[in-house]
């Protein structure tokens, strides 16, 4: 962990902010805010992505017995968000730091204009020394358009603001070779850019209060590191976890960042849910795109096109076996693309500047 961090996105999970009986852990919240104030004093820019609204609502607001599960979550999220943000405002105010609340859904990131609007808002808050506090708007989010977990939202925000570091705070020290409660289980402390498959070590168990689990964290950590952001999965229930992060003494799973991608590529990397079509490429094109050379996607390397996309739409890129290699922004529509399949000397379907090829394959 030798890299100096200037902008850090800190994601605090529901299991960090709640006690075993489900009640809010106000002492833990206060401690984490104190530590974020320490980071701010040291000159870092801090963005907080926080879970906890449903847990706060569940404890504070009894509901009618016949309330269905979806309505319960919506009501608790709406009510609990007020309690959550009020608590954060009081705690940060004691440290002399104003905060701002942003409630978002995936729809807010659906195109480049929305994405840039959100980015400009966050940049403005940071420049004016206001701490952004971000949460998914669970009260109105449609299930199929919800983030997998706030880990996914945190990764998107980190990419958006060109953050140096992303801290995913949970209730264990990181990813273990074995179950975290097993004393013999080994903590994986460093994940290099070759990114071995760690899923074999990860339990699919999810917490009682959160929606995601360690597999979500690992997936997002790998993607964020691939975009040039260092990622740390650490135990937010341990005292002074953020102080240890600053002092580079944190016990955690650290994901080594790759080469920093530009912001266009970062947006495209997170745009899979908005893709409008799919392009199958041949082996020659696959080899070229996975090489270290700057390469655009040319029609000569395309074997099949699916979907009715337009110029400017996001399209998926898959290899001959159907394995997804990346995403790109189409330079022309599907009709024109179909006419050019296999032809040489043509304009790229996806220019390199708007092409994201994952290094995780």
Mean residue pLDDT: 88
Low-pLDDT regions:
206-212
Largest sheet, strands/sense/barrel: 8 strands, mixed
Distance between the termini: 25 Å
Q: How many beta-strand segments?
A: 15
Strand ordering within the main sheet: 3-4-2-1-5-9-10-8
The tally of helices reads 11
The general outline is globular
Report Rg: 21 Å
Helix-strand string: EHHEHHEHEHEEEEHEHEHEHEEEHE
Q: Given the helix and strand composition, which structural class is it?
A: alpha/beta
The proportion of strand residues reads 15-25%
Helix content: 25-40%
Task: Give an overview in words.
Helix content is 34%, strand content 20%. With 361 residues, it is of the alpha/beta class. The strands form 3 sheets. It has an 8-stranded mixed β-sheet with strand order 3-4-2-1-5-9-10-8, sandwiched between helices. A hairpin with an 8-residue loop joins β6 (176-177) and β7 (186-187). α3 (53-60) packs across α4 and α6 packs parallel to α7 (214-226). It is globular and about 65 Å long.
Quick take:
The chain is of the alpha/beta class and 361 residues long. Helix content is 34%, strand content 20%. A hairpin with a 5-residue loop joins strand 13 and strand 14 (324-329).
Q: How do the strands and helices of this protein lay out in sequence?
A:
Elements: E1 7-12, H1 14-17, H2 26-41, E2 45-50, H3 53-60, H4 69-94, E3 99-104, H5 112-127, E4 131-136, H6 150-160, E5 165-170, E6 176-177, E7 186-187, E8 190-191, H7 214-226, E9 230-235, H8 241-246, E10 252-255, H9 263-269, E11 277-281, H10 283-290, E12 302-307, E13 314-318, E14 324-329, H11 334-340, E15 355-357
Parallel strand pairs: 1-2, 1-5, 2-4, 3-4, 5-9, 8-10, 11-13
Antiparallel strand pairs: 6-7, 9-10, 11-12, 13-14, 14-15
Helix pairs in contact: 2-4, 3-4, 6-7
């Amino acid at each position: 962990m030798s890299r100096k961090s200037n902008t850090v996105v800190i994601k605090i999970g529901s299991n960090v902010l709640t006690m075993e009986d489900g009640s809010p852990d106000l002492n833990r919240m206060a401690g984490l805010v104190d530590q974020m104030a320490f980071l701010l004093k040291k000159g870092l820019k801090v963005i907080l992505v926080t879970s906890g609204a449903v847990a706060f609502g569940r404890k504070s607001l009894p509901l009618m017995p016949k309330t269905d599960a979806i309505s319960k979550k919506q009501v608790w999220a709406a009510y609990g968000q007020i309690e959550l943000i009020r608590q954060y405002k009081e705690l940060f105010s004691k440290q002399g730091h104003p905060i701002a609340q942003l409630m978002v859904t995936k729809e807010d990131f659906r195109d480049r204009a929305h994405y840039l609007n959100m980015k400009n808002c966050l940049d403005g808050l940071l420049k004016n020394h206001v701490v952004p506090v971000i949460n998914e708007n669970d009260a109105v989010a449609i299930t199929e358009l919800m983030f997998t977990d706030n880990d996914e939202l945190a990764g998107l925000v980190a990419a958006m603001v060109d953050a140096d570091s992303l801290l995913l705070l949970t209730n264990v020290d990181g990813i273990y070779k074995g179950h975290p409660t097993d004393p013999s289980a080994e903590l994986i402390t460093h994940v290099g850019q070759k990114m071995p498959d760690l899923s074999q070590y990860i339990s699919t168990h999810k917490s009682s209060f959160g929606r995601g689990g360690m597999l979500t964290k690992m997936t997002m950590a790998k993607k964020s590191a691939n975009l040039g952001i260092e990622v740390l999965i650490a135990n937010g229930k341990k005292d002074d976890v953020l102080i240890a992060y600053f002092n580079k003494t944190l016990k955690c799973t650290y994901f080594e960042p790759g080469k920093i991608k530009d912001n266009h590529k970062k947006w495209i990397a997170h745009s899979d849910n908005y893709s409008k079509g799919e392009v199958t490429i041949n082996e020659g094109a696959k080899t070229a795109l996975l090489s270290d050379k700057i390469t655009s996607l040319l029609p000569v390397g395309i074997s099949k096109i699916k979907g009715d996309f337009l110029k400017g739409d996001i399209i998926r890129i898959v290899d001959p076996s159907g394995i997804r290699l990346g995403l790109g922004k189409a330079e022309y529509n599907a009709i024109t693309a179909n006419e050019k399949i296999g032809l040489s000397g043509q304009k790229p379907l996806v220019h390199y500047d708007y092409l994201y090829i994952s290094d995780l394959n």
